[in-house]
Amino acid sequence: MKVYVITTGTIFGLITLAHIWRATVEGPQLAFAPWYILLTAAAAALCLWALWLLWRWPRS
C-alpha cells in the first residue's frame, strides 16, 4: 500500500508541475482558464494528500 501511495503521489506531483510549466509557456490564455486551474489544484491537492498520508504512516 505504501508503494501505491508513493507512486500516485509522484504522478500527481508531476502532473502539477507539467500544468504549471505549460501555463507559463503558453501564456495567460491557458493560465486563467477555470477548468485548467481546477485540474491543477485537484492534482496538487492529491499530491499533498499522498504526502500527508506518508508522513502519518507508522514507522516500521
Label this structure with key terms:
about 60 residues, mainly alpha, about 85% helix
How does this structure look, described?
The protein is mainly α and 60 residues long. The chain has one domain. It contains 3 helices and no strands. The longest helix has 25 residues, at 2-26. The mean pLDDT is 92.
Task: State the gist of this model.
The chain contains three helices and no strands. The chain is mainly alpha-helical.
Instruction: Tell the overall outline.
Output: elongated
- Structural class call reads mainly alpha
Number of domains: 1
Number of helices: 3
Please describe the biggest sheet, giving its number of strands, its sense, and whether it closes into a barrel: none
The SSE order reads HHH
Q: What gyration radius follows from the Cα positions, in whole Å?
A: 14 Å
Report the span from N to C terminus: 13 Å
Tell me the helix content: over 70%
- Report the average pLDDT across residues: 92
Total strand segments = 0
Name the beta content range.
Answer: under 5%
**Any low-confidence stretches, pLDDT <50, length ≥5?**
none
Break the fold down into its secondary structure elements and pairings.
Blueprint: H1 2-26, H2 28-31, H3 34-56
Helix pairs in contact: 1-3
